[in-house]
Fold this sequence. Notes:
- The complex is a heterodimer.
- By secondary structure, chain A is mainly α.
- Chain A has helices spanning about 10-30, 30-40, 45-60, 85-90, 90-95, 140-175, 180-190, 195-220, 230-270, 270-285, 290-305, 315-350, 350-360, 365-400, 410-420, 430-455, 460-470; strands at about 5, 65-70, 80-85, 110-115, 120-125.
- Chain B is globular, with a radius of gyration of 26 Å.
- In chain B, the strands form 4 sheets. An 8-stranded mixed β-sheet of chain B has the order 6-7-8-3-9-10-12-11, sandwiched between helices.
- Residues about 335-340 of chain B have low confidence and may be disordered.
- Chain B is an alpha/beta fold.
- The interface between A and B is large, with 26 and 46 residues.
Amino acid sequence: MPEPVLLWTDLLLFVxxxxxxxFGVYASRREHLxxxxxxxxxSRIGISTLTILAFYIIVGLLDSVHFHPRAEDGNGQSGEVVxxxxxxxxxxxxxxxxxxxxxxxxxxxxxxxxxQPDGSMVRDYPRLAHGGAHLQxxxxxxxxxxxxxxxxxxxxxxxxxxxIAALLIWRLARGHGTGFGEMARRVAGGRCEIPWxxxxxxxxxxxxxxxxxxxxxxxxxxxxxxxxxxxxxxxSLKSIRTGLMIGTLTTLVMLPAxxxxxxxxxxxxxxxxxxIQYLYTTLNSIPGVLLIAAAILMLQIHMSNHADxxxxxxxxxxxxxxxxxxxxxVTSWTGLCRLxxxxxxxxxxxxxxxxxxxxxxxxxxxxxxxxLPNVIHIVLITVVLxxxxxxxxxxxxxxxxxGVDPTTNSWGNMINSARLEMAREPIVWWSLSAAFxxxxxxxxxxNLFSDVVRDAFDPRLxxxxxxxxxxxx
Amino acid sequence: xxxxxxxxxxxxxxxxxxxxxxxVDGVDLTIRRGETFALLGESGCGKSMTALSLMRLLPSxxxxxxxxxxxxxxxxxxxxxxxxxxxxxxxxxxxFQEPMTSLNPVLTIGDQIAEAVRRHDPRPGKGVRERVxxxxxxxxxxxxxxxxxxxxxxxxxxxxxxxxxxxxxxGRPDLLIADEPTTALDVTIQAQVLRLLKELQHETGMAxxxxxxxxxxxxxxxDRVAVMYAGEIVxxxxxxxxxxxxxxxYSRKLFQSLPNxxxxxxxxxxxxxxxxxxxxxxxxxxxxxxxxxxxxxCDRETPQLAAHDExxxxxxxxPDKPLPHxxxxxxxxxxxxxxxxxxxxATHDLQVHFPIRKGILKRTVGHVRAVDxxxxxIPTGRTLGLVGESGCGKxxxxxxxxxxxxxxxxxxMFDDTDLTALTGNDLxxxxxxxxxxxxDPFSSMNPRMTIGDIVAEGMVxxxxxxxxxxxxxxxxVLLEKVGIRGDTIHRYPHEFSxxxxxxxxxxxxxxxxxxxxxxDEPTSALDVxxxxxxxxxxxxxxxxxxxxxxxxxxxxxxxxxxxxxxxVMYLGRIVESGATDRILENPRHxxxxxxxxxxxQADPAxxxxxxxxxxxxxxxxxxxxxxxxxxxxxxxxxxxxxxxPDSRELADGRMVKCxxxxx
Lengths: 473, 663
């Protein structure tokens, strides 16, 4: 039995997931929270982006279950820490090449001296140790093998999507008490409350891409290898966790401070307001990068002075990630705090808050029952909008070397290490492109999703709809 | 003055909103040159939509689906948008309810009127400014040469409405559509604006389509009237016979539900139920579900708007059948024995001053004397009406008594305790004994809480009911008491109408068993028929539970109906107080006299040449020296300018602060 390892960021991520589940249960019992979420799920863009985000989240969660693997010889544990995702991707992880190789290549990217069986030396592109190793004669078989493998992956993906679609339609048909064919027509025609058609299309595309990628990755390096011969696809997948961590943990760190201080400033006014305003205007006027650089440097010095306290490389890298989240949180809570202060100033003058005061309800109760539930929509909108910004910020920070640990897989680190190779002829483009592709998909999905969330929760946008109905009522 | 030439003729106008809402449903109107035609109705009956349809300014989603409208020979509904723009602001002018938001705050008022002048009355160069000045003079803006370059925030509400009217007059319109032009204004300012409209009509000969919900305003100004209900016109005719003997049961019930002092001591007649939503199919007669005369025929035949005599038409099968006689149900001897010895609440020299801070260091440079030395006495089981215009500080008095705003001076004696001396938990424990009901039933309940939680909040805070089940039971009892079904406790506020919400607010206040309830304009946001229901409820509760009310309002008729005593407030001070009958029938203070005279009476026979009170309410930050009222007072003398008059008790028991009042 492998021994589980709980890293700090894992713990916090699970706390966050627990919180999200609790909020889901809480919201499902309250109509004013349930209705906007229903609206999110009922929009085509909402459900499509949610599907893509779910893929990222699943990968991120799989990558957050860490353990010490059983050592090769079977007795005792190794010092290495791997995650569930590593275990699943072990074919990718373990098949290291010597150095750069282009995507789907069968030969290395640079020429080397090869000793022929007869002892003579030839300078040529050597065959890869793993990529396309099954081919007898790459020159003739390569193209055909690629095509066949892709088609096989396509077939598998299609089969899987069809199975899922059939299962879903069967369940829906049973729930609605209609026939299978009728339900299928309804789903295809977009005549369901939830746009299942859009969901199935997105899911099918995703599944087919995964299946094709999986089939190809078994025989080749789909996105090539990097300088030390590591598979780029593997790196990109591992980077997902880092991106998600930065995007969500930072929020988790800043939320309590932003909510508490923002509401306090707006509700109590007076000297509390003055102090809090002073605090965030001061903090806001320090350049964020400066603060982050200083904090990361301090941490590095601390770690090198107390090297014995950190048992594994993974632990050190993890602590640095956590620290980055913390410091990003410290620099990013002011915006939300300011919004909440303004909203609370408005709310405290409303009649129902005054009525509660007239009942002798305590300040804490008033904040909890009357102010907080009425600003939650602002919190939600801000959190979702901030997410993509933070993912991008990580890439920038890693690029200037004050981001995550160089040993941590992250899109920023991928870009950083690829930057030197941009000048090479022919150009090594795949690391950069892979990082870009994965990050772009995540950020685009998150941005589109946040637009839908904002439309659903923003009372002004909702007000327009109601006003149109309300004119006559 | 109506020279019978038809100016506007509307036939079968129907407007839909968002496809399903029948906002206007087959409206016929005829407006003659130079007359004032009033369109009367409660909120949501489609009267504003009728006006917007005529202007072709419907909100997005709105569509005119049928009908014709002719302005003289011009078919309004067939014009192109280009041509329509010539008509808007040209032949038809329009003014809106809210003068605060109808003017652009970053342009001077001169620029804004000039815009209209340039469009519809082109003159070269300097002529524009002269025409703007002429218009400002026409609407009686004092010192127009100076005002023309001022910004909207420098003007008072009444002044802004005058500017809006000046803008609407720029194109010399044949027809002025006034959509609730005075609803957002105080009575004295309302009287000024209504008089101005009348004068302008006299000078220019334009016709006015006046849209209002106020029977009083109709009686004061209109020549003919049409009553709208649920998108239809149910009755139309000249004002005098309409007020003399309304025909449609709806109009008749409206009159009966108006509170006034004759109905004191009796329950008000109410129209049961509420205005039907316009997106659902109506019964044949739209009023029949609420009508006391409804019978089988009303369900079978759709009533048509049929001529009743030469001038009047009514949409009812039984316009002549008398309403079932309702016995004047006595409210009962209300709380009667005024324990004059020991009042429940007494304020002594209550003051609430807000500091005005300026500069970087926020130094106090002055005070807004919102409440400046007020003495009130409310005995157990009695109602004191506190009357005054907006900005006079009456709401601040309520909050000062509740200690929601801590008074800066004076005492609030409640049951022998000085509330201003209490702090923290001592105060919190006494909170339950005084409660408040707010004006706006939409902002007075947390939209995120269920009705049950809202009503129970006070009980929980006061620690009255620990047991959850017992608490829920009590909430149900309370809701039933105010006429809300007990099984609604798990619903949210937005599922209720304005009147129902106000009832729930009353239940919430009652939950902590208060002795005094401060009613801060509780009926101002409600329709007439719903207002009557709430006033009845308040009167019943007072009788049943011996409650005392401080009834803060600007609505004189509601005060005359419900209050035992009345206090009139002007700029932070009480100018006159005493028994309601005596004050309202024989006001002595010049301000009280002017205020009462400004209230439009729902009786065209009593139409007076409105003695408009000049000027606006001065700022409480810099009140005039001496008597605060002297700049507007017709009787002011030198002594009034020097010193604020002391309070004097007259022989009939009233208190008054005026040098000119003889005993």
